[in-house]
C-alpha cells in the first residue's frame, strides 16, 4: 500500500494510493524545513521534546503550526531517519490538530475539517513509518514503535470515518492495522484487518487493492503456519493475478507482496 500520505486533498491521495513508492528523500525541500527538522531531532535527543514542541508551536496561526507538524513527521523520517524523534512529535502534532479542531468546530467548520485532515495524514504516516516491512536499513523499529504505529493506524480509521468514510482510504487504513498486527505476529487479528481492507477496496472499485490485501491475508496464513501449503498456493495465485493485470501499480503491488513475505520469513 502507500508508504507516505503527502497531501490533504482526496484527488492527490488517490494518485498516491496506486502509485509506486517514490523517493521522498530526493525531493527538493525548503532549507528552513530541513533546519527545523534537524533542530527538533537534536532537542529530542537532548531530552527536551517539550522544548521542541514549544518551538514548533511558537509562531504562526494554527494552520501554519499544523502544516509544520505534518512536514516534520515526514522530514524526521525521510531526511533525518530519526524515528525516535518522529514518534513524540507526530503524537504532539496529532493532539494539537484534534484539540484545535474541537475548539473550532462550531466557529469555523472548514478550518476544523482541515485540521482533522492534517491529523489523518500524520496518523497514517506514523503507522507507516513504524512498520518494519519496508525493510529500511536506516530505521530501527522497536516494540514501542510497533505499538505506536498500531495505535496511529486505529486512529486513522476513526479520522477517515469522521471525514466522510471514503472507502478507498478506509481500505488503506485497515491495511495499516493489518500490517502492524502482521509485524507483531498477531496473525488472526492481521487477517481480520486485511479482510476489512478487501471489503473497502471492493466498495472503492479497486481491483489492485483488493488483490493486494488478499495477498496479505494469504501471507498471514503462511506465517501462522497451520495450513502453509494451501496458503502459499493462494499467495502465488494472487501475485500472478496482480502481475497479469499488467499495470505499473499492479506489478508494483505484486513485487511488494513477495518482498514483504521474504522479510517476515527471515
Q: Strand share of the residues? A: under 5%
Radius of gyration: 19 Å
What is the structural class? mainly alpha
Enumerate how many helices there are, as a single number: 12
Mean pLDDT: 92
Count of separate structural domains? 2
General form = globular
Give structural notes.
By secondary structure, this protein is mainly alpha-helical. The protein folds into 2 domains: 1-164, no CATH class; 170-266. Helices cover 75% and strands 0% of the residues. It contains 12 helices and no strands. The longest helix has 22 residues, at 83-104. Mean pLDDT is 92; it is low at 8-23.
Keywords:
globular; 2 domains; 266 residues
Short description:
The chain is mainly α and 266 residues long. The protein is 75% helix and 0% strand.
Question: Which SSEs are present, and which pair or pack?
Answer:
Elements: H1 10-17, H2 31-45, H3 49-56, H4 62-78, H5 83-104, H6 109-129, H7 143-162, H8 167-183, H9 187-204, H10 207-224, H11 228-245, H12 248-264
